[in-house]
From TrEMBL:
Keyword Nucleotide-binding: yes
Subunit structure: Homotetramer.
GO molecular function: aspartate kinase activity; ATP binding; homoserine dehydrogenase activity; metal ion binding; NADP binding
Domain ACT: 335-410, 416-490
Top-rank taxon, per record: Bacteria
Family to which this protein belongs: In the N-terminal section; belongs to the aspartokinase family.
Function: Bifunctional aspartate kinase and homoserine dehydrogenase that catalyzes the first and the third steps toward the synthesis of lysine, methionine and threonine from aspartate.
UniProt catalytic activity: L-homoserine + NADP(+) = L-aspartate 4-semialdehyde + NADPH + H(+); L-aspartate + ATP = 4-phospho-L-aspartate + ADP; L-homoserine + NAD(+) = L-aspartate 4-semialdehyde + NADH + H(+)
Lineage: Bacteria, Pseudomonadati, Pseudomonadota, Gammaproteobacteria, Lysobacterales
Protein name (record): Bifunctional aspartokinase/homoserine dehydrogenase
InterPro entries reported in the protein's UniProt record: AceGlu_kinase-like_sf, ACT-like_dom_sf, ACT_Aspartokinase, ACT_dom, AK-HD, Asp/Glu/Uridylate_kinase, Asp/hSer_DH_NAD-bd, Asp_kinase
Presence of keyword Isomerase: no
Length: 831
């Protein structure tokens, strides 16, 4: 970057003043102009220099007008009238009865513009001169309007058309100021217009040949820095519509935070890499003379904004990365071939060829093997760049020394910027890790020796997600997870309530933002934003479409997606491999995946090994830490010898209560009424649910069994298996005698009846009624408690026991929630 110190002639000796620039967003309408006047009125400095952009949208409108005229599209006339009307109406609003002179001046300007456009329409050929003259008119008008308003308010205020003073040439990096000519003209102009307040048109200038030109889109920032230098200003404030420079583009990262201070270097890196908040050339004149620059919000003038200056802005408490920016519409160019290895000068020739073709290179990366050189250029230059390389290496390509010249379009470069990155290990790892965790492929990497900027090229479609993931990874914003909940019955509803209740606290204390954005039942579907989740039913639509649900949950702009399946549906479980394969994390209390077909289970494990997490703690023992306990044992090298337990809260309750005094069927009726059973109590009594849990535990321990391998003793009499629920409940008493007899036999032997699941070290699995000694650990459970006993090599004589309430929506939902938090922790949330 060139930092030529402007040679400042006479003007530098002028009395100091404060310089400001108001962007288009600060000059959108009459009330904006008044706001600007009010801000200026509060400034302490008696001398004010005010550079302005065009009214918001005017430059775009002028460019479109010129394009339409050249195309012969008569539509320019209507657009011209609208633009004229907007300027006249704003002026009238501002100046009222005193508007006459300004209105006449504007009318004249718009008439000239109409003549120019009509001429363009006749010529039909685009002309750079005309285009540039037209583009800059918005600033000419807005400057005069503001100056007249300030004069109307009683200020001694002059208005400078920068085309009368600022002389520039055009170089590869944009406009180059002729400081000597501009300084002399400014000093001369100022002697003729000595008013303490001065409004200057931004964006516009004149070439040495005397032609009107512009400083490039967003160029008013640069104008402001130039005029601040010419006027010898003591500081420069760029007024916009954000609370300063934010940690990322707020349109892509809504959580972006204002940065209190930046060094010049940091600000330059951010500006070069696409942070639209400052024009990249702006800082050059400021740096050359140590001019402090502030970025502030016109709409919140009490906010301090961002100070940019010479002081190194980093301190130990600050994250190493201050901000992130992204440049879109780029392409990766790759030159590849074994013939390049060890051949000096290849890079020089490649970049020389690009230079000769006027292609600017955004980023360069060469592997140390020298087998390939890769660089990033603007997409619009890609074809020209490719042709230039092919020409330059035509001989090597013919001889096969260079195998290919490739172009991949649709690329964005994301840059992480901060002085604090220098000498800090792990910054790149954190960036790459964050991108990897949300499944974003990095196409090329570059880090400058200054270590102030790490840049990565990614697919354009990943831009927003990559920015957000990196932003969260550097603690600049919370870790955000987009969550969808399928099948909210009792457990799902409890989970939604728990998530809602915990959301603000997780955000505050752990910088974790869990956003429930979709809910689907078989009959209803809601797709929205987290704020609407609590009342999702009010705006749900009919019919579930899990494809649309999935697309909504995996929103492009959110880094992480997670689906919680609270259904008991096999069809939903069948989607897990695809979800996990697409990078969506899955958390579930649904037993169908863990106990379903083994190929599907395997597909789920394989998909989850590739990145997305699959957690299912609540499938066994609800909120009790059963699976994680077993995992910890196995992961630390222990060996499971046997697992036994009572896995059904319903069956636990029935046999804890059953002492022969009340008929078993009466207890089933009572449990049903208390909500301890499934709607159809046979789902509990059949033992299938318990068998499923045993299969899940067995598979966790590496025992590859299926449901069919479990010997299941069903408590549902054969003759009632096909009956309706009502008939079953009604006729269950017919079988009381049989169970009473089993109970009596056990009692006479000093034992108790319990419904037990067992897995032995040979992988034999069974569930059914067992007679246990009266002092057995399973004999003294309370209510619906579950118990699991792991006998392992380490816990051989005295097994490890997990026990506690093992059913109920609240505890099950808490188990699911804990899994969600575990997934979030693996994504980088600080829990
Ligand atoms: P103005 O008209 O005031 O010059 P611009 O539209 O040129 O404003 O640029 C300001 C806009 O740049 C902001 O409104 C914001 O949307 C966008 N922007 C992009 N990156 C950043 C960033 N890092 N900090 C602040 N704003 C940014
Ligand atoms: N009005 C010009 C643009 O829109 C310059 C500026 O606003 O800085 O690019
Ligand atoms: Mg701007």
């Amino acid at each position: 970057m060139s930092r030529n110190a402007p040679a400042l002639p006479a003007a530098a000796a002028a009395p100091p003043c404060a310089a400001h620039k108001f962007g288009g967003s600060s000059l959108a309408d009459a009330s904006c102009f008044r706001r600007v006047a009010a801000i200026l009125a509060t400034q302490a400095d008696p001398r004010q220099l005010v550079v302005v952009s065009a009214m918001r949208g005017t430059t775009d409108a002028l460019i479109a007008l010129a394009d339409a005229a050249v195309r012969g599209d008569d539509g320019w006339k209507g657009a011209h009238a609208a633009l004229r009307e907007r300027h006249l109406a704003t002026t009238l609003d501002l100046l009222g009865a005193d508007a006459g002179a300004t209105l006449a001046w504007l009318e004249h300007g718009f008439a000239e513009l109409a003549n120019l456009l009509a001429a363009l329409a006749v010529l039909g050929t685009p002309s750079r001169e005309a285009a540039e003259a037209i583009q800059g008119l918005g600033e000419v008008w807005s400057a005069r309007m503001l100056a007249d308003l300030l004069a109307h308010d009683g200020r001694a205020c002059a208005c400078l058309d920068a085309r009368d003073v600022l002389v520039v040439g055009h170089g590869e990096l944009g406009a180059i100021v002729d400081w000597e000519a501009s300084g002399a003209r400014y000093a001369d102009w100022r002697t003729r217009h000595p008013q303490p307040w001065l409004v200057v048109t931004g964006f516009v200038a004149r070439t040495r040949e005397g032609r009107a030109t512009v400083l490039g889109r967003n160029g008013s920032d640069y104008s402001a820095a130039i005029f601040a230098a010419l006027a010898g200003a003591s500081e420069l404030t760029l007024w916009g519509d954000t609370d300063g420079v934010l940690s990322a583009d707020p349109r892509l990262v809504p959580d972006a935070i204002p940065l209190a201070a930046l060094s010049y270097d940091e600000a330059c890196e951010l500006a070069y890499f696409g942070a639209k908040v400052i024009h990249p050339q702006t800082l050059t004149p400021a740096i050359a003379r140590g001019l402090p620059v502030r970025i502030r919000n016109t709409f919140r003038p009490d906010h301090a904004g961002t100070s940019i200056g010479t002081e190194p802005a980093g301190d130990a408490a600050q994250p190493p990365v201050k901000g992130l920016s992204a440049v879109r519409d780029l392409a990766v160019l790759t030159l590849e071939g074994a013939g390049m290895i060890g051949v000096p000068g290849t890079a020089e020739r490649a970049f020389g060829a690009l230079h000769a073709a006027s292609v600017s290179v955004v980023m360069i990366s060469q592997g140390s093997s020298e087998h390939s050189i890769c660089c990033v250029v603007r997409e619009a230059d890609a074809a020209r760049a490719e042709a230039a390389l092919r020409r330059a290496f035509v001989a090597e390509l013919a001889r096969g020394e260079i195998a290919s010249v490739g172009v991949a379009a649709g690329i964005s470069v994301l840059a992480a910027v901060g002085d604090g990155m220098a000498g800090q290990p792990g910054v790149a790892a954190r960036l790459f890790g964050a991108l990897a965790r949300c499944g974003i492929n990095i196409r090329a990497i570059a880090q400058g020796a200054s270590e102030r900027n790490i840049s990565v090229a990614v697919d354009a479609a990943d831009t927003a997600r990559a920015l957000r993931a990196a932003h969260a990874a550097f603690w600049l914003s919370p870790q955000t997870v987009s969550i969808g909940v399928v099948g909210p019955g009792k457990v799902g509803a409890a989970l939604l309530a728990q998530l809602d209740a915990a959301r603000a606290r997780l955000l505050r204390e752990h910088q974790l933002d869990l956003r429930v954005r979709a809910v689907a039942t078989r009959a209803l579907q809601w797709l929205g934003e987290a704020e609407g989740a609590a009342a999702w039913k009010d705006s749900a639509s009919d019919g579930g479409d899990l494809d649309a649900f999935t697309r909504h949950v995996q929103a492009e702009h959110l880094p992480h997606a997670l689906i919680v399946d609270c259904s008991a549906s096999d069809a939903v479980a069948a989607r897990y491999p695809a979800w996990l394969g697409a990078g969506i994390h899955v958390v579930t209390p649904n037993k169908h995946a863990g106990a379903g077909p083994r190929e599907r289970w395997q597909a789920i494990r394989t998909a989850s090994a590739r990145g997305a997490r699959f957690r299912y703690e609540a499938t066994v023992g609800a909120g009790l830490p059963v699976i994680s306990t077993l995992r910890d044992l196995l992961d630390t090298g222990d060996e499971l010898l046997a697992a036994e337990g009572i896995f059904s809260g319903t069956l636990a309750w029935l046999f804890n209560r059953y002492d022969g005094s009340v008929a078993f069927s009466a207890l089933v009726h009572e449990a049903h009424a208390l909500g301890y059973t499934e709607p159809d109590p046979r789902d509990d009594l059949s033992g299938t649910d318990v068998a499923r849990k045993l299969v899940i535990l067995a598979r966790e321990a590496g025992v590859g069994i299926d449901l069919a391998d479990v010997a299941v003793e069903s408590l549902v009499p054969e003759s009632l298996r096909a009956a309706s629920v009502e008939e079953f409940m009604h006729r269950l008493s017919e079988f009381d005698a049989a169970i009473a007899a089993r109970h009596a036999r056990a009692r006479d032997a000093g034992r108790v009846l319990r419904y037990v699941a067992r897995l032995d070290r040979d992988g034999r699995a069974s569930v059914g009624l067992a007679e246990l000694a009266a002092d057995h650990a399973f004999a003294h459970l309370r209510l619906t408690d579950n118990i699991v006993q792991f006998t392992t090599r380490r816990y051989r004589d005295n097994p490890l026991v997990v026990q506690g309430p093992g059913a109920g929506p609240e505890v099950t939902a808490a188990g699911v929630f804990a899994d969600v938090l575990r997934v979030a922790a693996t994504l980088g949330a600080r829990l």
